[in-house]
Fold this protein.
Amino acid sequence: MSIYRDLFSSEGSELYVKPISLYFPPEQISKLTFADCVLAAQNRNELCIGVIISTRAKDKNQSFGIDLIPLDNQLNLTLDDGLITLAEDET
């Protein structure tokens, strides 16, 4: 149950939307899978649970751009998109 203590304590990890540029160079961003995103977050001691796709942000039918655990083989991300992560800080 320590994961729950960590999640619900004021010192624990929190959910953040972080710019994709923190994880990948611009030339790689359009060729990513969700597994790539998970691995990149893991390398920073974070947990990636989804992506935010900026072009869908105003579309209610597209969940306002929030895609938790995307099933697409390849994500069509841009520099305007982000990763939804569980992390200790927002940097």
